[in-house]
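hey so u asked for the seq, here:
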Amino acid sequence: MSLYSALYAGVSGLGAQAGAMATVADNITNVNTVGYKGVSAQFQTLVAGGQLSTGYSAGGVSAAPKALISKQGLLQASSSLTDIGIDGSGFFVVRSGTDTGDTVSFTRAGSFVPDSQGYLRNAAGYYLQGWPLDADGNYVDNGNLNTLEPIRPSALTGSAQPTTKIALRANLQSTAEPITGAYVRGSMASGTLSPQFSRSVEVYDSQGTPHQLTFNFVKTAANEWVAEISGDPADITSVGGAAITDGVLASGTVRFNADGSLDLAGSDPALFSDLDIGWANQAGSSPIRLSLGSNDGLDGLTQFGSDSALLSSTVDGGMLGTVASVEISDQGIVSAIFEDGTSRAIYQLPIATFQNPDGLTRISGNAYIMSSESGNVAINKPGALGAGTIAAGALEASNVDLAQEFSNMILFQRAYSASSKIITTVDEMLQEVSNLKR
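ran it, structure tokens below
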């Protein structure tokens, strides 16, 4: 009987509109949730009979939720250095705990703060993951989520960092008189030859122990100097794997062009190569990269008429103090800022992308996990291969349009009332059928 089909259609309408109202309720209650992605109700018909004939049987309607995960929310400025948003597609990679066996999920909620153990964690309790950086700022990206680590800047407190780079800018006086006689390697380190210019820098081994290295220079001819890099013989046992006893790490000729710029091609390569030093205290070390200038450049050693002088020097490494704060750059690099004002880049944040982000499965805490509909995850650095860029010091607001949700609420309420009218009307009609027996 077609009346019964109309009754069932009305019931399906009540269920569909109730489900649609549930999406409105979820969206409105999360209108201020950071990184929240709204859900819309998509209605579809239910057909009892596909072909029209002399009789018609009502099918009804059903509501299917559609996630709006790929819809960008507004980025809003934040005063916290560890608040981050994503401009474009992609998600932050997070875990439910600090162990590699904990569940991996993905979120756009970038309100991360250090917890009691120093890990960066958002309000839902998810731990931010990143690639650890080595001393040169490199990381290993093999596409495997297991290479990611929970970000914990406070772990550096009280640790040591070996020196990996020495950068010098110095001028050697062009009017200096060349020395007489031939230069003998190690003569400046031993004191038998007085350098015309000398400067020392402090470097550190892997245990944070300081060591002095000295750069000595004497002029041997026009546009030509001899440089000698040395240290305390009691501190140094080898360089480049070769045993030494005089403390001389490298020596050779430094040549300059007619305009006073560095002639790197004509200079001794040993003076511009890495120093791999073996320390007498058996502490570990990293090869020290020398940055003394580029070919034909004025960014390192130069030769002009002014007095010989050290213009600037940069040496990394040393004992790391207490981490005072954490900063995240627009490139997704997490840096620890120490109490003495120094900083160190420690992690690179990845951005996770999916072929169909709207197919992700939602979980509590404003996060998502992979599903068969979303496809596999791809992790890349921000801005690469379709991944969005990091917006440091900003948070992504909910993408819910409050005016639209209230409009939908009115529509769903009216449709629910109309569906209930179908049921009451059919009930009255069935009552009339029952009264025929009287």
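Residues 186 and 192 are 9 Å apart (CA to CA). The helical segments are 2-29, 187-190, 402-435.
lmk if thats what u needed
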